[in-house]
UniProtKB/TrEMBL annotation:
One of its GO terms (biological process) is methylation. Keywords: Methyltransferase, Transferase. The lineage of its organism: Bacteria, Pseudomonadati, Bacteroidota, Flavobacteriia, Flavobacteriales. InterPro entries: Methyltransf_25 (IPR041698), SAM-dependent_MTases_sf (IPR029063). Residues 44-137 form the Methyltransferase domain. It comes from Christiangramia aestuarii. GO terms for molecular function: methyltransferase activity. SUPFAM superfamilies: S-adenosyl-L-methionine-dependent methyltransferases. This is Class I SAM-dependent methyltransferase. It holds the Pfam family Methyltransf_25.
Amino acid sequence: MSKPREFYNNFQSKLISDYTISNKRMESAIINLGSFIPSSTENILDIGCGIGWSTHEFAKALPHSKVVGVDLSPVLINTASKLFSRENLRFETLDVTRELPENLFDIIVMIDVYEHIPKDNRQAFNLSLNKILSSQGRIIMACPSKFHQLWLQKNNPKGLQPVDEDIDFEVISRLSKDVNAEVTFFEYQNIWNQNDYFYAVLTKNPRYGVDEQFPELKLESKEERQARLKNQLKVEVKKNTNKNGLEKILSKLKKKVKPK
Ligand SMILES: C[S@@+](CC[C@H](N)C(=O)[O-])C[C@H]1O[C@@H](n2cnc3c(N)ncnc32)[C@H](O)[C@@H]1O
């Protein structure tokens, strides 16, 4: 098994913990990046969807769109498929550096994913994104900033993942050129620290002077998420469960879902 796949097969406690305790990084990315998805969107691809939290929220907010979540890890995709089921939503295990779904997408989402594409694969990946991004499609993405990566490299290298590249505006401009798009939005964010993340939107053939409609994104509440974990995964998190308690509960889940 490849090192990244093995790593992400063991990443589900972290992602379920983010989901359960309302991780600020994810909530902010879903709400803010989701605000760039027009109501008229037909097809959405969520790359590196993990346990499918963002994928599900977008499928819920845009019931007329077909939404696909893909991830390298079969363990995460297995959990996503159990947690979330909707008619307009499906999940697939895929290494996006090797292949991408063949149809066209109006929106391609990457939340904390582009930095995990190895630098050597980047341009080929960019060109393959171009093939599946529709003529007025958008890539909407969140990445840790180069400032945050530098801080991790110096102060907490264990916090870095097997592939964890530095992504800055120059890299985003290159991606934008490779997919024949314009950078229509780029903004640093203060999630845990000043300027630790950025959000970017790359748009092919941006419209001018058109009033687009955007749906209201209302995330499921913490209580609804905990009920989903209980009903779909048989993981019961009590109101006062702290981080340690959660780790204990999730370690049982890990044994139930064996990596392929
Ligand atoms: C930092 S996690 C982000 C997960 C989720 N989007 C979030 O923000 O919580 C990175 C995700 O990208 C996925 N990933 C990394 N390399 C990938 C690849 N080559 N193909 C598909 N998914 C990949 C990992 O399995 C993991 O779920």
